[in-house]
TrEMBL record:
Origin superkingdom: Eukaryota
Name of one Pfam family that matches: LRR_At1g61320_AtMIF1
Taxonomic source organism: Urochloa decumbens
Protein name, UniProt field: At1g61320/AtMIF1 LRR domain-containing protein
InterPro entries xref list: At1g61320/At1g61330-like (IPR053772), LRR_At1g61320_AtMIF1 (IPR055357), LRR_dom_sf (IPR032675)
Domain At1g61320/AtMIF1 LRR: 55-449
Stretches that traverse the bilayer: none
Length: 463
């Protein structure tokens, strides 16, 4: 129920008022409080602080189990209010605490860790802090029930984090986002830890995890860092590198040995300049592979070299290749099938589903697709989409052909990208469509006739 409706109901119903004051789950933000931003983009700080003051004081007797306090839009909020609110909310009853502060507080606000000690933090299962300093004291046990810790833009030293993790024996999920003080991330032997996510930690050079049951690991950074994962249970791995020019080369040569029991692998490369090599290493258990390539590819990148990943994955069932939309010059006609390169025959007995988003008319992209069709003997479906529509989260296709999408929801494409997408359609029709077996479902998607139209003269492309 919206806050304004709750207030009106409380005015006419004492029963509702008593129930509201004992309601232990509070989500407080400008939106939930019914407050609007002014013309400068700022909220009404006085109204915001007054309402939160009143709500928390009304709940001080009954206690709070969940507090989500989002003050990100209140850039002029005085930090003393925060300490007062946390003093009221953090009691032995609290189980979940989320604090989202304005970005300027990253250098200005120290989270009052003392409030978590003395029994107040014993029941906390979820702690999410954003834009602050978090300095847990060495040698003081707390957060014994903590299962999920998320720190984003938080100042915490390596020693402080190790101390906190060593005392959080129930921890199952750890997420660190833009924690700039950490150089060497050491994860002690936390038995329950199963999911680790690290992203944007600019000073990070090494991750050393001794968690024996880690099963999911996600990493995003400008460059690769040194990894040491002692757990053989890692089955799900996601990695993204923004500046490495040979990230896929690293992935296929190193990961089979570092994480031998992988079942799902997602790789995102934003500046790839080295073709993927053919090696003897194998991902013996990998059944899902997704590769995203951004527009930083050098023009001569050989998509056919990605066949090395397929060769290295004998039980792979799903392969997804996503390519950022990028306009390429009009390509010359590269002839018939006799001019296509062919990799050595390597039957993919388990591969069932293939999806290529951002399919283009580059010869090596066509060669990769034909290679898959020639060797995937159990293939059931293949989707070739010449548009990489990030707004289509449910994979419905363009709004002109998918009734579930409203008009205008397709991603924006400039005229050159639309032209390239149509060149991709021509390449599919000329080189690929006839090779698809009748037992395989082919789904070809192009630009939206409603959102991505061009003048007819723009389609006159030699192919």
């Amino acid at each position: 129920m919206p806050m304004e409706d709750s207030a009106r109901t409380a005015c006419v119903s004492r029963t509702f008022l008593r129930s509201w004051r004992h309601h232990p789950y509070l989500i407080l933000s400008n939106r939930t409080l019914g407050l609007k931003q002014n013309a400068s983009g700022k909220g009404d700080v006085w109204a915001f602080t007054t309402k939160i003051d009143q709500i928390l004081k009304n709940h001080s007797a009954a206690g709070v189990k969940t507090l989500e306090l989002d003050v990100f839009e209140c850039r002029d909020l005085n930090a003393c209010y925060l300490s007062d609110w946390l003093q009221i909310a953090i009691t032995p009853k609290i189980e979940s605490l989320t604090l989202e502060l304005p970005s300027k507080y990253e250098e200005e606000y120290n989270f009052p860790c003392s409030l978590l000690f003395g029994g107040n933090g014993n029941l906390i299962r979820h702690l999410h802090l954003t834009y602050c300093a978090f300095r847990p004291k060495v040698g003081i046990g707390c957060l014994r029930s903590l299962t999920k810790l998320h720190l984003s833009h938080v100042h915490i030293s390596e020693e402080e984090l190790v101390c906190l993790l060593s005392n959080s024996l129930a921890l199952m999920q750890l997420e660190l986002n833009h924690c700039s003080e950490i150089i060497c991330l050491e994860i002690p032997c936390v038995q329950q830890l199963s999911c680790l996510t690290v992203s944007g930690c600019s000073m990070l050079q090494m991750i050393d995890s001794k968690a024996p049951n880690l099963s999911t690991f996600n990493f995003t950074g400008d460059n690769l860092v040194q990894f040491s994962l002692e757990s053989l249970q890692v089955k799900n791995l996601g990695m993204a590198c923004l500046k490495e020019i040979n990230f896929l080369n690293y992935s296929i040569t190193k990961l089979p040995y570092m994480v031998p029991n992988l079942e799902t692998l997602t790789l995102s490369s934003y500046n790839e300049m080295v073709n993927t090599p053919t090696i003897a290493a194998r991902f013996h258990h990998l059944n899902y592979l997704e590769i995203y390539l951004d527009a930083g590819l050098f023009p001569e990148y050989d998509f056919l070299s990605l066949g090395s990943f397929l060769d290295a994955s004998p039980v792979l069932e799903t392969f997804i290749l996503s390519r950022a939309m990028k306009f390429d010059p009009v390509l010359e006609d590269f002839g018939d099938a006799s001019n296509m390169r062919q990799l050595p025959k390597h039957k993919y007995e388990s591969l069932k589903d293939v999806m290529i988003y951002g399919f283009c008319s580059a010869k090596s992209m066509v060669e990769l697709t034909c290679h898959i069709l020639d060797n995937a003997i159990s293939l059931e479906s293949i989707t070739l989409d010449t548009v990489n529509d990030w707004e289509d989260e449910e994979d419905l296709g363009r709004c002109s052909v998918a009734p579930a999408r409203k008009s205008g929801e397709c991603c924006y494409l400039d005229s050159d990208s639309i032209l390239e997408a149509n060149k991709g359609l021509m390449a599919i029709q000329k080189y690929i469509a006839a090779k698809v077996p009748s037992t395989v479902q082919l789904d070809v998607r192009g630009p939206c006739s409603r959102c991505h139209s061009l003048e007819p003269s723009r389609y006159e492309v030699k192919c």
